[in-house]
Amino acid sequence: MEQKNKSFARFTTGALGLVCLLFIIGAVNMIAANLRIRADLTAERLYTLSKGSRAILGKLESDVTLKFYFSRSAAEMPMQLKTYADQIQDLLKEYEIAGKGRVALEAFDPKPDSDAEEWAQRYGVEPQQTSMFGPPVYFGLVAVSGDREQVIPGFSPRSEPTLEYDITRLVTRVAWPEKPVIGVMSSLSVLGAPMNPMMMMQRRQQPDQGWAVFQELRKDYTVREVAADADAIEPDIRALVVVHPKDLSDATLFALDQFVLRGGRLIVCVDPFSIADFQANQQQNPMMMQMGGGQAGPSTLGKLFDAWGVTFDTSKIVADMSCATKLNAGNGRVEDNPAFLSLSAANLGKGDLLTAQLSQVMMPFAGAFTFAEGNGIAVTPLITSSKDDACLVDQMNAQFGMGAMRAQLKPDGVQRILAARLQGTFKTAFPNGVEGATNAPPEVLASGNGTVVLFGDADFMQDQFCFQSVPSLFGNMMQPISENMTLFGNTVEQLAGREELIGVRSRGQFNRPFTKVDKLEAEAMKKWRDREETLQQDLQETQQRINAMAQEKKGMERLILSKEQKAELESFRKKQMETRKELKNVRKNLNRDIERLGLTLKLVNIALVPVLVVAFGVWRGARRKKR
Question: Which residues lie closer than 8 Å to 184 by C-beta, 6 or more apart?
């Protein structure tokens, strides 16, 4: 009996202990579920709210409510979107915490015919059909502050790299609704152009909406077009963007001069050869282009550059073998074009906020700047070429591809500046004003503090070098192919907007470039170019010898090859085959090196951790056995 009591007591004690343990585990899980404890171990802190977002949230003067609409209960909603929605909601909770009471998060599941669906439609969250007969689904965000509201109509996983920027910009729009005025002066239709009635009669013409970078500007700024022949810049323009300025009059140059002297912020994009200008000329004057006329002209600021100590040679284009871009050369061939620059983090200034977080910028046919010293202007390089693989080539040769500029591709060891910021005391280019015009007040004509950002290329903002349009569940989305839009947006925001947004927009990239592979390809390209030049030179010498032999013959004998000519041709063909075989080996060795590098990375990623665990276990076991 006593033994049974002891057993029962032991059982009861164990059961109670188990219940207590389960209760403790449940309590710990409940507490831990409400705690946001996590560690971001990515190299660029991709999953941590940036300092820029925290700075903006810390400056909020009014309450902001974030209303997240997602059709979570819809059976038609794809699983990948549900996963992405969880990531977004998790990020929005970070906003709520960082807002310290100023930001409130509300999540809604807009079911059919519900109040949540009615409000989603009223706010402008776009309904999307996932099936022909199914109900619409919603996936968007609304920010509300007082009587002001802004909306992101739909999210897509393709826009994940800009997710935080989109949300933070949404908050700034609703918290600070006033829009600074941005002026745009250009010889190109960057802001769009009205439809031509004559073209409409011939064929259907799509309305010209302008470049996407300027469409994006309109979301945060009041964008005002400034005529290319303007003789004054309106005083309420906070920053002025000048794109491909061709043949500006002295009156217009004087207007820009005065704008800078009175403290205006100027962004200038000049170009030795503008693809956009060439395409526009080709569309407007196809017959002229076929006859060799109607060429697109270069752009510069002439007298202003002279006064500021800036030199921009419009006859030269920067070529950089380490930044070459793979282009379609026709007939199914792909060639590396060093004049079409794909710039990496090594070419972008890490000490400047504009470019610190960027890693991929594309600049086709860009020119280089040089700057005089001791003129009172501080120059900060933003984008540069490499030092060991770059040179200058003629603008005309670069237009016709590798064949035309191959002989000039000889690196000269000079690192060239493709973009820079100028700050300081600018001197006027018109100390006596403009001849025949009313002179400005003497104090404005003297000198003044200003800021100018220069880009040696105007095409980098064109749509085809910024993004590609891809279909998605929520319509066509702009998928970036470079960080050109980010670069331009950073520049405008620093000069005219909220600088905190730059740190948000310039987040790290999820796709990181293989710099080692790029270096291998650059080295292979050098070998290939050297051997190809040697082959071309041998061909020319052989042809000259054959022609010389033919000159010694008379009449119809010139059409018949002599033994010496046949021997020369046979010798050249043999050398040609050997050279081509050598070039093929260069490509094989390159592919082998790349495959070997890929295999090494796979071994490190897959096998390294298990090997380390096994090694630690063996070491631990040996140590215990020794003890």
Answer: 190, 191, 214, 223, 224, 225, 226, 240, 241, 243
Of 567, 590, 461, 524, give the one whose Cα is nearest residue 184. 461
Nearest alpha carbon to residue 527 among 485, 572, 598, 588: 588
Instruction: In whole angstroms, give the CA distance from residue 395 to residue 457.
Output: 13
Beta bridge partners of 237: 181
Q: What angle do CA 358, 363, 364 make, to 5 degrees?
A: 160
Q: What is the mean pLDDT of the chain?
A: 80
Q: How far apart are the C-alpha atoms of 407 and 394, rounded to whole Å?
A: 11
Stretch 394-402: mean pLDDT, rounded? Answer: 85
Token readout for 582 is 């050598």
Q: How many whole angstroms separate alpha carbon 378 and alpha carbon 380?
A: 7
Whole-Å CA distances, 54 to 81, 351, 438: 27, 21, 50
Which pTM does this prediction carry?
Answer: 0.64
* 36: CB partners within 8 A, 6+ apart: 93, 94, 97
Question: 299 falls in which pLDDT band (50, 70, 90)?
Answer: very high
Could you give the CA distance from residue 496 to residue 179 in angstroms, rounded to a whole number? 10
What is the token pair recorded at 525? 């390209």
**H and E: helices and strands count for the chain:** 18, 21
